[in-house]
Amino acid sequence: MLFSSLSFVFAFLPLVLLLYYLFRGTAYRNFILLAASLLFYAWGEPRYLLILLVSVTITWAAALALTRVRYKKLCLAAALLADLSFLIYFKYTNFLLENINALLTQPVDPINVVMPIGISFYTFQAISYLMDVYRGEVPVQRSLYKLMLYITLFPQLVAGPIVKYHDICLQINSRQETLHDFTCGARRFIFGLAKKMLIANTLGAVADGIFALPTAQYDGATAWLGIVAYCVQLYFDFSGYSDMAIGLCLMFGFKLPENFNYPFLSCSTTEFWRRWHISLSTWFREYLYFPLGGSRVGPFRLYLNLFIVFMATGIWHGASWNFVLWGLWNAVFVILEKATNWPKIEGGFAFRVFKNVSFMLSFLIGLVFFRADTVPYALDFLADMAGCGAKGMWAGSHACFINPYAAGVLLLGVLLSFPLARGWAYVKGFKVSLAVNVWCLVLLIASWGAMAASTYNPFIYFRF
Amino acid sequence: MKKTLPRLLLSLLLALLATAALQRAYLYRPFFSVSLTAETERPVTFTLHYNGLPLKDAVHISQKPGRHTTVAELRTSRLEHLELSYDTDLAGAVTLHRLALCDGGKESPLAAAESKEAPQRTFKWEEPLRSELICDTPLLLSTFFLLLLLFWKIVTRFPLPQRPQPRLPRGKEAWLSAAFCALFCLILVLPWCRIDRAEVSEDENRALATPPPFFPKGQSFNLHFGRDFEAWFQDRFWQRSNIVYAYTRAVSKADGQVLENGAAVMYRDSGWIFNKEYLNLPAPTQEEQAAYISNLNMLQSFCDTHGIALYLAVMPGKESVYAEENKRALTAPEPVVRQFLNTVGEQCPGLTVVYPCTEMKETAQRDPHTLLHYQTDSHINEDGAYLVAEALTTAMNRRFPDLKLQPKEAFNSTFSNQRFGAEYKNTKRMQEIGPIRGDMERWLMLHRDGYTQQHRYPHYSWEQGGLTLRRNKIPMSIVSHFENGHSKAVLIGDSTTQYIRLWLHTMFKDMLRLRANNNGEDGNELRMSRWEAQIVRYKPDILIICVGEGTLFRHIATMY
After folding, report:
1. What's the mean per-residue pLDDT of chain A?
2. From the list A10, A182, A403, which residue is nearest B237 (CB)?
3. Does B238 touch chain A (CB under 8 A)?
4. How far are the Cα atoms of A66, A144, B448 from residue A57, in angstroms, in the given order?
5. Does the beta-carbon distance from B161 to A448 stay under 8 Å?
6. Fewer CB atoms inside 10 A, N or C side of chain B?
7. pTM, two decimal places
8. How far is B232 from chain A (nearest CA, A)?
């Protein structure tokens, strides 16, 4: 089920809210949330529910075993392997086979599997719990259903944020729902929905129209339009989803950590990864980078660690060479920045603007690999962006792909990528609250219209 | 007692629900089974339908000749209809010795069929049967009791709720929050105010989704319930069409005057859409032209062999007829098509070509209020097709002087204010294959009626012939018969034949229309090999190949 589907907003959500607030007591409410989360997951494809349940049960049993067995490392390794094996099987087997087949004379047939939705997210959450228990940072959760609630909590189940167990374990046992939190949560949910429906989807149509065509059919300006539209679409799509998840959790009394912090203000790739998909980058930092030694090692080992982390980040996003190259692109820039100490070089406003523009250029170029379906297409697209394509830099073909409305939305999207409306969901004061509330209701109705008018509406981050 | 009663009630409720679900889902299945004994001379696949549903795996009675028995399980508790059939091409090869319906090991004598031999290939059992074996009362009660224990165990683990602590809003800001939350929740339930119960959406020209069953007939559980529910709700929530209309209208205000995408260009002020595939039509290379002419000559020799007169009618497109309406630097296809047809005239003796583009342009200029093409559809309309039919009749009269085109007034016509032709009527098709997407689609949705009324819908009936044509029927072949007509004709072509056929069928005594691009299994090609035998059998006097100007080269290229 998608947050931006009519059945979620107008059927699932009101029903769950009604049941949730009909009962009192955290235990009952947790039970309702758990049942709702399992229904939410099973809605599209009930068969995958079993994989989720098996994964959670393995994690729960392994964590219990971790507190009792002598060989903790072995137990942890076995549990991690079990959790990761689902991810590897469903997400990477065909990619691996594809590459092995390229070396073999008698190719092996690809397996017929469809990746369960959100497997990358819930696997990482399970690993987070196991690692926290292993390190002794949190007590083991003896209740299976509470652990299940942590991993399957529906607002963050299929597209994050990747909530670490130590951030939420206390809230599962005890939390307080207040009217103020509910209001802020509803506002945050509406802002996220509007981001997705009114901005990301409009720009998605522009980007999809361009990327669907062979690169020879458009000029360099169109290629730039396509990648800028995609960049803004990606940000509003995913940050909109995160806003909805955070808002929904707030409505149920959970406080999730932020996942975005105006990433396009970044002046370097290093800074970007502190502002973009924060929960993923923190996860990799805590559970991969630090165990590898972090920055408390020699320079060569440090660069190797960074390389491993960013390659893993790329691979996590998708099983294709595009994402490998995208991860490599990021790794190269982060290593170069580390070697030159670029993020710490201070300067005036002009220098900061220069750093920001140069970073955005590098980001947009890397993003081509992220968006393109194949590596050759990405290379042709980059040639188009450089004006070396069949139609040169300017042949006027961009007019086919954008109209004044989409151009206005693109401009609005770029403006809203800067902190012009920071914290609007949490405003206080009668007059400001009144204005924000009215604005939220207008956005909700507009989003309802957009939802009704559109039928094809996948979230980009679901494919990861 | 105060603590126990609510827990007990909750456990009872949960156990009841779970038992009901289990009973429907599992306790009845697999229940009936069919055993089949047959003797075959070659491998045969039997197909079994029960309760109107096909058995997931066909019953493979034999992989090699001989006598074999197989058993298939029917996953249902209630058997209302059973049907067994096998491949009809294997006449005489199968002897069915026994078909027996078993109910949990007990064979039902009523359902047994003895020694049914070919050619009887279908066996039906239509008396409803309900199994009583597994799903007996003690079993159900036991299940219920076990589930009750289970839920009691679960429910008693939860502490009972504490005394509620009211958190009433205080102060102006808190009341504002409360009002906002109330409005937010109200909007969330608004779509349920009234569920649309209509069967079809007139605007979209499609059937609306039906309520999804959770336990479909003959199946244990609907695995696609979520998807089906979504489709149902999306189609039927309160004020759907008004909300879509209002949103579309608001967004459309910001669209430009000229809407353009990779496939089409549209002018909002005049309402014309031009298909880019047909504009800037590339002239065929010398090799291509030689191949096209060779194909036409092959067709001509086929017709000569069977004594058939061949005519090629090319429907001028709006990109040529209304070229002045197109303000963008995109060339009309007329010069390219005309040059090619001139070459055809020189190099294909015996083939008569009809391309009344000049006449249509003159008519369009003389009477601008009668459109000859759909503005928002790539097709010629009935008025345009009538002009082509006139030109074709003139050409045919040289050899067939008895042929007479009926005047338009002879037809009983109905009018519609729909602006779309066949292809953009259906919203789904518009999104999937049509060049109208995004902003164009949005704009058209706003003007779905009342913009122009030039479209005359093919809703004709003609009393003398007793032939009634209905809308939106595009079958592969149509046979027309008209007593007062003359000669026998075959009309082959793309979707444009749909419009010209309306006028031509009253001219011939018998006419067979074969459509090339019906989007069916045969694809979009005008491949003559699939029709030549049929044409020979039909013995027509005239063969008319009728294609649109924009698709002319594509069709001729695939002819042979």
Report:
1. 87
2. A10
3. no
4. 14, 7, 55
5. no
6. N
7. 0.67
8. 9
